[in-house]
């Protein structure tokens, strides 16, 4: 069997990978957490009105549950180039090999795009209300920032791994949009 290469999706890669996925398995990354800590000036916001997207932040004692995505080795060069073009557009993320515990008991190392806290787009620590205000108002090349949040929450819920913090944030954003 072709083992291929693994990517860790904790945000939009879970619901819109945009590359051929040979296998997907729920996975946990120990010592990491997802948070809305990246000002998006391309995909979900603009330079004049940045949005917020998820970043994977180092967080000892935390677990981030997401989706491990396997790409066949023959397709990896093209898939990797496409993901890099998407995720490294402003170099706010860096590529890292992250150990994952898969729901089926396997352990793999996956490529993950992790937040660079030294990057000018990093904005960790914003209150939920501040995040909601930004997300409700922003839109970029890939559409409304709120859609990014809503799609992420819906996908996590559908996989049976709800994220209470993101669900609360989605409720705050919906309240601002009504």
Note the overall shape.
Answer: globular
- In the CATH scheme, what's the topology name of the domain at 5-126? Hypothetical upf0131 protein ytfp
Radius of gyration: 16 Å
- Given the helix and strand composition, which structural class is it? alpha+beta
Mean pLDDT across residues: 96
How helical, in percent, are the residues?
25-40%
How large is the share of residues in beta strands? 35-45%
Spans of at least 5 consecutive residues whose pLDDT stays below 50 are none
Distance between the termini: 50 Å
Number of helices: 5
Name the CATH superfamily assignment of the domain at 5-126.
Gamma-glutamyl cyclotransferase-like
The main sheet comes to: 5 strands, antiparallel
* CATH class identity of the domain at 5-126: Alpha Beta
CATH architecture of the domain at 5-126: Roll
Order of helices and strands: EHEEHEEHEEHH
- Total strand count, please? 7
Strand line-up in the sheet with most strands:
1-3-2-4-5
Keywords: Lyase, Transferase
Pfam family, one: ChaC
Protein name: glutathione-specific gamma-glutamylcyclotransferase
GO molecular function: glutathione specific gamma-glutamylcyclotransferase activity; transferase activity
């Amino acid at each position: 069997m072709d083992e291929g290469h693994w990517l860790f999706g904790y945000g939009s890669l879970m619901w819109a990978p945009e590359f051929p996925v040979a296998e997907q398995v729920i996975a946990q990354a120990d010592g990491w957490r997802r948070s809305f800590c990246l000002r998006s000036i391309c995909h979900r916001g603009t330079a004049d009105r940045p949005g917020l997207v998820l970043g994977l932040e180092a967080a000892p004692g935390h677990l981030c549950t997401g989706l491990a995505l396997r790409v066949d080795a023959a397709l990896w060069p093209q898939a990797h180039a496409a993901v890099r073009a998407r995720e490294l557009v402003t170099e706010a993320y860096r590529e890292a090999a992250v150990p994952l515990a898969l729901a089926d008991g396997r352990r793999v190392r996956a490529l993950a795009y992790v937040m660079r806290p030294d990057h000018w787009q990093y904005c960790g620590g914003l209150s939920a209300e501040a995040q909601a205000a930004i997300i409700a108002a922003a839109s970029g090349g890939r559409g409304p920032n709120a859609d990014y949040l809503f799609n992420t929450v819906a996908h996590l819920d559908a996989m049976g791994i709800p994220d209470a913090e993101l669900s609360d944030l989605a409720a705050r954003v919906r309240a601002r949009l009504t």
